Amino acid sequence: MSDFSVVDGVATIHDPERYQTWLDRPDCMDAVAASADPGVEAIKRLVIGFEADLARLVRDRTIEKNSSEVMEKYVVQDCVQHDPNAPGHGRDVLIEFFRHVPPDRGTPPPAVSVVEGDLTCVMMRQPNPDPVIPGATYDGNILTLLRIKNGQLSEHWSAYQKRVPGEGPM
Known about the structure:
Elements: E1 4-7, E2 10-13, H1 18-21, H2 26-33, H3 38-59, H4 63-74, E3 75-81, H5 91-98, E4 111-114, E5 119-129, E6 137-149, E7 152-158
Parallel strand pairs: 3-7
Antiparallel strand pairs: 1-2, 4-5, 5-6, 6-7
């Protein structure tokens, strides 16, 4: 059995090791990005590439060094933020905000689905400790909505709840 499968555009990860190694194996990202429409596939690849490059910054502990380069590649200068934890709008504000992501969080989760369109939803999935069944895990889904303009990300919404800076996961 493969370590993942894609059914109806949603990847299911069968091997837990995949959550740590997804950044170095483009086969799942390629499968999630696949579309009969080249324009749609380009948008999916943009969003998945953005999430993968951000995850690499965290995994490789290069947030401070490389945040500007990644954000300039993917995000328009006047991007709009709808994340309640973001301190404002604009790429420069986003770069500074991202530089404060705790570097000891481990590898961020992989994108497992991208909905098509200029308003694009990316779903990432990671196993979480089950609070009800000791020793068990469940798949937690993280949804992010992005608007694409001229081949770059121009607007972002997240499902995160507002938090006290420095406390709990981002």
